[in-house]
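Handoff note, outgoing to incoming analyst
You'll be picking up this chain. Sequence as last confirmed:
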Amino acid sequence: MRERNDGVLEVTGEFSFVATHHLRSYLGSTESPHEHEFKARVILRVPRLDKDGISIDFAWLSRVLLELKERYNGYDLNALEAFAEINPTAENLAMDIAGAMYERLAPNINATVKYVEVWEMQDMSVRYYPDAKQSEPAS
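Most recent structure output, in case you need it:
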C-alpha cells in the first residue's frame, strides 16, 4: 500500500491584470505603447503536507497573488524597475513573477515554482520553468 504522503502535490494560483507596454527594438523600431489584459498562472510543487495536512495555505497564496497583481495592474510595465533595461515581454514577465514567488516562498514555505504561465493574448501564452535544466540545441 502506498504511503499517504508519497508523490508531489501541485498547487495552482492565477491572477489577471491590465497593463501597458511597448517593446524596444522590435523588428528594428520601437513599438507604440499598447494595453493588454494579461493573465498569470503559478504552479507550485509541494513535496509533503505540513503537520496540519496542508500543502500551501490558500489564504497566504491569495495574498501573494494579490501583491503580484498590484505590482503590475494599471502600470506601464516599461516604467517598472524590473523592465528598465529589458523588454516587458510575456517571457520576461513570467521570469519576473517566478523570481517574486521564490522571494516569498523562502525559507518558510516548503515549495518550489514548477512553472509560471503568462498570457498576453487570450489564446497565446508562454511558460517559464525556473528549475528546468537548459540543454544545448542539437547541431
